[in-house]
Specification:
Low-confidence stretches of chain A: none
Radius of gyration of chain B: 12 Å
Largest interface: A-B, 44 and 45 residues
Distance between the termini of chain B: 26 Å
Low-confidence stretches of chain B: none
Strand order of the largest sheet of chain B: 1-3-5
Helix content of chain B: 40-55%
Strand content of chain A: 15-25%
Number of helices of chain A: 11
Largest sheet of chain B: 3 strands, parallel
Shape of chain A: globular
Distance between the termini of chain A: 57 Å
Order of helices and strands of chain A: EEHEEHEHHEHHEEHHHEEHEEHE
Structural class of chain B: alpha/beta
Order of helices and strands of chain B: EHEHEEHEH
Oligomer: heterodimer
Mean pLDDT of chain A: 90
Helix content of chain A: 25-40%
Mean pLDDT of chain B: 95
Number of helices of chain B: 4
Chain lengths: ~325, ~100
């Protein structure tokens, strides 16, 4: 496998970087980088780290010495530790408070719980502001536990960007991938078709029944896409050869949620280099951040609008005391 | 009325579906099967994922039908938790 870190790869301009990824020969990994500048989305870091895990013989991982000025950043994010690389020059690791959540491998429920608790102080943000981040990480990592069957778990990292006042998150796994998981219960002939089903609330690979089973509603990814949509942020899912990207939308359009992801402003491709597993990247703007309760109102309204058959007489509301 | 306190098991962010499932199986379902009224007490829980709420209550709505909502109450919910519960209760009825 071969990955070249370009001068810039964020969700908006991610496509050329992904197209250059060479997944052939999974027993080796070569990482090269642009000689001057390397600034990448946390999804890219999670991707590289996840690729390295199945390679037991770390001598098969070749990290070409990074010359870029941003090399210390990758050191602090823990990338070279993941790759088992010793070839990089030493760097003083700074206190990460207020800046980033370094690459972390999460393999079980308890460590997820601990991770969510411990990541909050790292971002030095008000609790209300980090609620969407907690939500996104919990749902994405639990998806990995429940659907990916990856023995390596989920690789997570995040970065706070003070200039844009936003948090960018990447979650990667090298498991079954979305198409194989969805195909357990629903037909999908392409990766983007499977991604489309996974983003549609009520559909899960765990059951053919609409609405899911006792523990899976098939709504987690829809909620995450909705968080990105109402804030006008990017959201990317890459699995197999398919990539779906929720594009930024204008203010007026943001308050319109659709159950089907292809009605949103998006791009999709089914001819990307094959990613064995699932990669997700999401941006969360804190400035534009809608109160979480407002988002839930929108989601509730969307469900209601799309279920016109609802029987008025038999419908009951939850009773709060 | 049987009260089930969530916070000691979930903390302020209720996201662990395994915990939700365990509460449903060991406390919620048996009480409802005994025809008891149940209050799920969310005091101290400031946020919950849709997945958590689904794992906690969807199966009882599916098995017992919508009438179970006459015996199942939600106590001390803050606004976020209330809205999440309302969404799950609502979409579950569309799948019955």
């Amino acid at each position: 496998m071969r990955i070249n870190l370009p001068p810039g790869a964020f969700l908006g301009n991610l496509d050329p970087f992904l197209r250059e990824f060479d997944p052939r020969d999974p027993s080796t990994l070569t990482l090269s980088s642009h000689p001057k500048w390397v600034y990448v989305h946390p999804m890219v870091l999670s991707m590289v780290a996840a690729l390295s895990l199945p390679i037991a013989d770390k001598s098969k991982i070749n990290v070409e010495t990074m010359q870029a000025k941003s090399r210390p950043y990758f050191e602090r994010m823990g990338l070279f530790k993941f790759l088992g690389s010793t070839g990089q020059q030493p760097v003083t690791e700074h206190d990460p408070s207020g800046r980033f959540i370094p690459l972390t491998r999460i393999r079980d429920s308890e460590s997820l719980n601990r991770f969510i608790t411990e990541m909050i102080p790292l971002l030095h943000a008000e609790p209300e502001r980090v609620n969407p981040l907690k939500y996104v990480i919990s749902e994405l990592v639990r998806n990995v536990f429940e659907h990916s069957y990856s023995p390596y778990g989920a690789i997570v990292c995040a970065q706070f960007y003070p200039k844009s006042n936003s948090i960018k998150v990447g979650v990667a796994d090298t498991g079954l991938g979305i198409k194989r998981t969805i195909n357990e219960s629903h037909p999908a002939s392409t990766d983007t078709e499977a991604i489309g089903l996974a983003l549609t609330p009520g559909i899960t690979g765990a059951t053919k029944r609409f609405g899911g089973n006792a523990v899976n509603a098939g709504a987690g990814l829809f909620f995450i896409k909705s968080i990105a949509k109402v804030n006008g942020d990017f959201f990317v899912i890459y699995s197999g050869s398919g990539m779906y990207k929720l594009l930024k939308s204008k203010e007026k359009e943001r308050r319109k949620l659709y159950l089907g992801p292809f009605k949103d402003r998006h791009s999709k491709h089914d001819d990307f280099p094959y990613w064995q597993g699932t990669l997700v990247g999401v941006d969360i703007s804190l400035d534009k951040h809608q109160p979480f309760t407002a988002l839930l109102d929108l989601i509730g309204d969307t469900y209601q609008k799309h279920h016109k058959k609802r029987k008025k007489n038999g419908f009951k509301k939850a009773k709060f005391i | 009325m049987k009260e089930i306190k969530l916070f000691p098991k979930t903390g302020s962010f209720a996201e662990n579906k395994d915990v939700a499932k365990a509460i449903r199986i060991s406390e919620l379902t048996p009480a409802l099967e005994e025809n008891e009224k149940v209050a799920l007490d969310f005091e101290g829980v400031t946020s919950a994922t849709q997945s958590f709420i689904h794992a906690l209550i969807s199966e009882v709505i599916r098995r017992e039908g919508v009438a179970v909502l006459d015996r199942l109450k939600f106590k001390n919910c803050d606004e976020t938790v209330k809205k999440m519960i309302a969404i799950v209760v609502s979409y579950m009825q569309d799948t019955l």
